Amino acid sequence: MLDLNDIAMFVQVVHCGSFAEAARRLGMPPNTVSRRIQQLETRLGTRLLQRSTRKLTLTSAGQGFHERCVGAVDDLLEAGQDLITGSSEPSGRVRVAAPADFFDFFEMAWVSEFLTAYPRVRLDFVLSDAKADLIAEQIDVAFRGGPLRDSGYVGRQILDPRSVGMVASPDYLAARGSPRTLQDLASHDCVISAHPGGHATWHLIGPKGEEEVQVTGRFSGNTAQSQRKAAVAGLGIALLPPLMAKLEVDAGVLVPVLPQYQPNGYGLNVLYPSRRQLPPAVSAFIGLVIRKMNAADVPQVYQ
What we know:
Elements: H1 4-16, H2 19-26, H3 30-44, E1 49-51, E2 56-58, H4 60-85, E3 92-98, H5 102-105, H6 108-117, E4 121-127, E5 141-145, E6 154-159, E7 166-168, H7 170-176, E8 190-193, E9 199-206, E10 209-216, E11 219-221, H8 224-232, E12 237-239, H9 242-250, E13 255-256, E14 262-263, E15 268-272, H10 280-295
Parallel strand pairs: 3-4, 3-5, 8-11, 8-12
Antiparallel strand pairs: 1-2, 5-15, 6-15, 7-12, 7-13, 9-10, 9-14
Helix pairs in contact: 1-2, 1-3, 1-4, 2-3
InterPro entries: LysR-type_TF_proteobact-type, LysR_HTH_N, LysR_subst-bd, WH-like_DNA-bd_sf, WH_DNA-bd_sf
GO molecular function: DNA-binding transcription factor activity; sequence-specific DNA binding
Family: Belongs to the LysR transcriptional regulatory family.
């Protein structure tokens, strides 16, 4: 029979990313934790963790076992904590992974409001355009733009793109004219993602459903901010994340181009390691993001 304490210890090791940190939190020697996990692997007849001098990684069997166990363990710990505190008030650290430009559009005042409402919560942000490894980096929740592909994590789309995408400066359109069809883009300079060939494929949703178009340009940049600045400077037509495009259009700096087309796959997704009920603090923060962005009529955050 499996020892439920060993399973809980395994979940803690995965969450901490190391035997040493898990042992510190559990108040026992690291070699004891390592030995108990080895015993669990022996009983299961499979390796759960790949050990190296730098970090621990889950095997495929370990990933599946963790997904099956973590929700139950978290529920038990949460139930015990609720009995101890007498409430289910959100508490503890929430480690959040988000795009590098997240706070260009998500107001810090909203974070302040959240922390005031939940004084027992601490937020720890990891901002990067790279896709976070939720297990290795001990991430509780990740916000990620773009299509939600299978990543081994639990995920769902929480906001759909519903806004402008292609934009250009008034000066550029006055000099070059406005395209009437997707095919007209071939005769325009377009601001694109960095590509050695100076061309890109834009994937769009239009009146006929999903469409794509090949575009070229003399300026390319590997961040949305660089492309936005190039469009504002009149260097061409840009396909910006809807949130970024909307803010510039509302400010009168850029104007929509072919507004019947929108970028395909720019919704906001939320990812988290556990398949079961989220901790109250994590759920509360996800709720804040949804409420504030909807209230501001903001459709998405980009990758």
